[in-house]
Amino acid sequence: MLTLAIGLRVRSHDHFAFNFLRHLVTMGAYLSKPKTDIEIEIGGNANLTYCCASMQGWRLHQEDAHNTIPNFDEECSLFAVYDGHGGAEVAQYASQNFPNFLKKLPIWSEQEKDFKKAFEDAFIGFDDRLRQPEVMRALSEIAAENKRGQNVEDEEEEIDEEELDSEKPQLMQEARLPLREVLGKYGVDSKDFMNIVMNYANQQMRKKEGTVKAEDADAPGPSGSAAGSSTRPTKRAGSPPPSNAKVEANGSASAHQENEEPKNESADKEADEAEKEEEDEESEDEDEEAEDGEDKSENGPGPSRAPLLNVDRFLRDVSGDSDSDEDYDEETDEAEAEEFIGAPIPGGGEIPGDDSGATACVVAVYKDKLVIANAGDSRAVLCRKKEAVDLSLDHKPEDDIERRRIYAAGGTISGDGRVNGGLNLSRALGDHFYKKNISIPLKDQMISALPDVKIETLTEDDTFLVVACDGIWNSMSSQQVINFVKERLDNGGELRFICEEICRHCLAEDTEGDGTGCDNITFMIVKLNTPYIAPPEDEEYAEKTAVEEKTPVEAEEAAVEAEEAAVEQE
């Protein structure tokens, strides 16, 4: 709906806008109806019982993955949530391979483990593995398989003609609305819109040239690191000279920068006038932000934020009528529209592991302690008595330690908290397009896989822990989740039904808000000091199954015997 509604406003011969819509779809588009089927896993061992629930929700694809391994080794159970972005392949590959990667590390087999070093080595080593050719091929195969599965699912899905008819008036109405309103309705904030535009534009430059040049950028960046950069390619009036660093195609940096193009005085004059007009409008936006008292440069080097771009002007250009409407060719439009609908979307995982990644929140459960390793914004929380104890911290670009690392690596942070105008988190597995600065180690890249590691000693007051992706935490606080689960456990609620209920509780009724409740959801409860008891087989189901497996003659004989037995009882 978002694509079609905006597409009606853009002439198909405007190739940048037309192709840009492909990219926009992945940034805020949702299903017309949420997928509310919930996958449940239940298990445990002599020391604990767990339940994990996963729901796709409004998202076009399920990109979460997880691990529930009650017998990881003789002393330890392992639980993990991987929240994928840009594709599910990194999350799925981590789920399939990270536990064994961790277990095979020499340090993990030591009697007295250095847990911090073990998990740091595991996360960074596994992240390095993701960029190896054989693993990138495996990621590509996973991505291709996911795409094939989605295509089959789309073909099998029945089309509700009545629903399509009912959406036509809405579609036509949206086609007449201001573009800002249409974007907002589908979860794309117009304040973020230009970051998305620049993200797409930079990806196209990279695809065409094999590199992203930083010659005229306001802030320097590492080789290949400017995907989604929200910096403007023109220089501000009165700004200091550009950096002497020049990023070349091979990722090396030369110590000079030259302008080799001949000057065109007339063109320069027009550009200066246009730039001055844009700067006047930008200064108004910056003044408004200054009133809010936000200064992101106090505690770290680098720019406080990426320069603002003129959203209103772009929206007017896209939604307004064009002088070239007279040249509009309906047949050409229909042909390009067909290509548009079926074309791959840039930024949606073009290079698996490079343009896609995943958070990782891993919890090792021992009898006397918990060891938590986290990179990203998934979260683990412990219930101690009735209080929530956060076992991990969300990693966001605006946090002081994250901001310092991002700037040191040559990155930028946009006003809405996105690294180079792209990711709104600062640590993850994969995302190697943000990890191209060859002068610094992998753990110090602007997006880092280095985990925070915490060891929490268990007490008799600790009853359960939860691990979940941000599809939960964007809707509820840690304490709210603990209250939700504890109240139901105290009333005899089963883990399965509690997990299902919280998934539905966090699901938004529609997609017209700010995106809260529209994400994939993965949620697990680990009940401590509670031996797992396998549920008894359903006698009624077993009896029914036994009857179904009989031959017709055997079934008839069994029915006669049952009737005779009933008569005897009477």
UniProtKB/TrEMBL annotation:
Molecular-function annotations in GO: metal ion binding; protein serine/threonine phosphatase activity
EC number of the protein: 3.1.3.16
Acidic residues: bias regions: 152-165, 270-295, 320-339, 554-570
Chain positions covered by the region annotation Disordered: 146-168, 207-352, 540-570
Pfam family, one: PP2C
Keywords for this protein: Hydrolase, Magnesium, Manganese, Metal-binding, Protein phosphatase
Entries under InterPro entries matching the protein: PP2C (IPR015655), PP2C_BS (IPR000222), PPM-type-like_dom_sf (IPR036457), PPM-type_phosphatase-like_dom (IPR001932)
Needed cofactors: Mn(2+)
Bias-annotated ranges (Low complexity): 219-230
Residues covered by the PPM-type phosphatase domain: 49-528
SMART domains: PP2Cc (SM00332)
Name of the protein: protein-serine/threonine phosphatase
Native species: Steinernema carpocapsae (Entomopathogenic nematode)
